[in-house]
Specification:
9 helices; mainly alpha; globular
């Protein structure tokens, strides 16, 4: 089994990781929804773990399923390298459901912040739509964080 490397953090928050990832995708980094290391979750995992798309793809193939299925099978103590990667995403604040939603661009809380005419046209395989979704999700997280600081 290929071992996942320790999870260094480039970003301190999930919102920051989403913004870094969106910027990298919009700048022309390889994007391929059918590649476990270059898809929506794969790109976020690259940001958080500093793994290459090839490394992520290789460890993801050690167990069957796409990111959505892998998050359903997630077990922190399984020993599967991708579970370490998923664990790093969870440690930064994402939930398993949010990761599944990212892969298909379908979190209702994020979607309601995208204008309806644009929302109806979202395609989870589109680089531009993934960037929009990630930036919108980051803004939502930042707003929620600000509200927490105001109420405390």
């Amino acid at each position: 089994m290929t071992q996942a490397r320790p999870t260094p953090r480039v970003a301190q928050t999930l919102a920051e990781a989403l913004r870094v990832t969106a910027k990298r995708i919009s700048s022309g980094d390889r994007y391929q929804w059918t590649h476990m290391g270059a898809c929506n979750c794969g790109h976020l995992a690259q940001t958080i773990t500093l793994s290459t798309p090839e490394e992520l793809h290789a460890i993801a193939l050690q167990r069957a399923g796409d990111w959505s299925e892998q998050t359903r099978e997630y077990c922190a103590t399984s020993g599967y390298p991708l579970d370490y990667v998923i664990g790093a995403l969870l440690e930064l604040g994402a939930s398993l459901q949010q990761l599944r939603d990212l892969e298909r661009l379908q979190d209702p809380q994020v979607l309601k912040l995208i204008p309806s005419e644009r929302r109806r046209e979202l395609n989870h395989r589109s680089r531009e739509d993934v960037v929009l979704y990630m930036r919108t999700w980051a803004s939502l997280l930042e707003k929620e964080s600000q509200m927490l600081h105001v109420t405390v």
